[in-house]
Prior knowledge:
The chain is mainly alpha-helical. The chain has a domain at about 5-110. The chain has helices at about 5-20, 30-35, 45-50, 65-85, 85-95, 100-110, 115-130, 135, and strands at about 140, 150. A two-stranded antiparallel ribbon has the order 1-2. A hairpin with a 6-residue loop joins strand 1 (about 140) and strand 2. The longest helix is centred in the middle third of the chain and has 22 residues, at about 65-85.
Amino acid sequence: MNDPAKDFKSELEQAFDKAFKSAKGGDVAWNEFMKTYGIAPLGDKEKEFLLKSDMKIATGAFPIELRRVFQVILAKYAAVATAAENAAVLTLLNNYNIDVEVIRYYNRIKPFTGMSDIFKNAKSTTKNYSEGIGEARKSAHRCKSCGAPRLEEMQYDECLFCGSELFVPNN
């Protein structure tokens, strides 16, 4: 007999693993894996934009693609748990934090920077974000999950890098 709670954990870990083991920006095997969940891979222009962004990756699929797979898996097991009244799966779903898992993934795929690069990176990053902002009357917003910068005048609701909500409406 299948254990849905075990299957849920296994399916999430399999998605994480396949994303991590794919080539930088994803590969054919990762794209096929995504298609099994009914998810279209990012387009070439989107991938090129993300590869050129300040949020670097050394290997693996983009975090936003993994988030989309996670979302499908969560929806699948929410339906299973509800139909079967499975308390164990419902507890796992309620305790699962997709933002934390996507950030855990990003921390695994981002390039390693040694101690000597920390201050150099901080200095160059500070310069890049602050240079010209005052003159152009622009300000950068940062994603609350991954820290990816976004200019104020760019209109979208989700982070283009990790997929988390940029602006949570006040209720």
